[in-house]
From TrEMBL:
Residues 166-298 form the Nudix hydrolase domain. Residues 23-42 are annotated as: Disordered. This is Nudix hydrolase domain-containing protein. Pfam families: NUDIX, Nudix_hydro. One of its GO terms (molecular function) is metal ion binding. PANTHER family: NUDIX HYDROLASE 5-RELATED (PTHR13994:SF26), NUDIX HYDROLASE RELATED (PTHR13994). It comes from Vitis vinifera.
Length: 341
């Protein structure tokens, strides 16, 4: 373990003015030689092992202090993950130079312990520390509205850190009533603005939101129509569609529970109920293979009893709730361990 004296350390400890001492910990260290004078035996050498005490600095770092010398080691507080790496979350303000010192010392210790990946969660209010982390070899992994995640691979081997999320998930809502009318909208922004094309209500699935829930929400947000989810009829995968990310788009069938339209003025230019055959006959739909295929699948569902994927509520081995989508019409045996969502 590297040991160093740092003026910035004393400045940092003085600035915070709050140290929480804990019990003395054992730590491998070189013996120091001290002397005492004896009237009969003169000078007698004796070995002294300095004690090292851990001092917590705020909630972001800890210090190993040699009580008999000025040599000190300051480290970032971290937790081990299940893959041989460590996770660090910066919670308190810190000078970027001090952070750089902490990071170098911590990486040295993690390397000696055989750690691999290092993850640093940096809240947006501590963005001043980004440059110091990048100088030590960290790179961006992903960003959210309130934090940036930085990663570093310690071994001199190809890293095995998982990549950031690769897909965005969207839905298109096929809402059909008992009159064979489909709910359609015209958008006032995006690629369909001023095209005159009538299309299904669409939207993006939120983080932590089920596909079936997203479809119900998007329909109500855009048109005011309340619905009940029926099935996933089909899904499409495309690539490099949104900031280089891939896209999964699920065509969902829903049954309306209301009929009076109240369109969303921010995104929707117009909304109406349209005969499904009229929708499918639009020139744009006929000329576009993807839209034409989806229209034919929807027609098959209401005419030929095409079977899609129904949602069932399930529980994982860890107890986490999830939704399983499958063709329950052709299932030979009922799934007794799950219930329909």
């Amino acid at each position: 373990m590297h040991r160093f004296a740092s003026r910035s350390l004393y400045a940092y400890l003085s600035a915070t003015k709050r140290c929480i001492p804990s019990s003395t910990i054992s730590h491998p260290t070189a013996h120091k030689t001290n002397t005492t004078l004896s009237p009969s035996k003169g000078v007698k050498p004796r070995a002294v092992i300095p004690s090292l005490t851990r001092i917590m600095v705020g909630s972001t770092s800890s210090v190993l202090v040699d009580e008999n010398s000025v040599q000190q080691i300051q480290l970032l507080t971290s937790t081990d993950d299940a893959y041989g790496g460590v996770r660090v979350e910066i919670k308190n303000p810190m000078d970027s130079n001090v952070f750089g010192d902490l990071l170098r010392a911590s990486i040295s210790q993690w390397r000696q312990k055989g750690k691999k990946g290092v993850w640093i969660k940096l809240p947006i209010e501590h963005a001043n520390l980004i440059e110091a982390a990048v100088k030590e070899g960290f790179r961006y992994h992903h960003a959210e509205p309130d934090y940036l995640m930085l990663v570093y691979w310690i071994p001199k081997t190809a890293h095995t850190l998982p990549a950031n999320a690769s897909h965005r998930v969207g839905i298109g809502a096929f809402v059909i009533n008992s009159k064979r009318e489909v709910l359609v909208v015209q958008e006032n922004s995006g690629g369909f603005k001023d095209t005159g094309v009538w299309k299904f209500p669409t939207g993006v699935v939120n983080e932590g939101e089920d596909i079936c829930t997203a479809a119900i929400r998007e329909v109500e947000e855009e048109t005011g129509i309340k619905t009940e989810f029926v099935e996933i009829l089909a899904f499409r995968q495309s690539h490099r569609s949104f900031f280089t990310k891939s896209d999964l788009f699920f065509v969902c069938m829903l049954q309306p529970l209301s009929s009076e339209i109240q369109k969303q003025y921010e995104e929707i230019e117009a909304a109406q109920w349209m005969p499904v055959e009229e929708y499918a006959a639009q020139p744009f739909v006929k000329k576009n293979p993807q839209f034409d295929s989806v229209a034919n699948i929807c027609l098959a569902k209401i005419d030929v009893k095409y079977t899609g994927l129904s949602p069932f509520s399930a529980t994982s081995s860890s107890g986490k709730h999830n939704i399983l989508y499958f063709n329950n019409q052709d299932l030979k045996q009922p799934l007794s361990s799950i219930s329909q969502a």
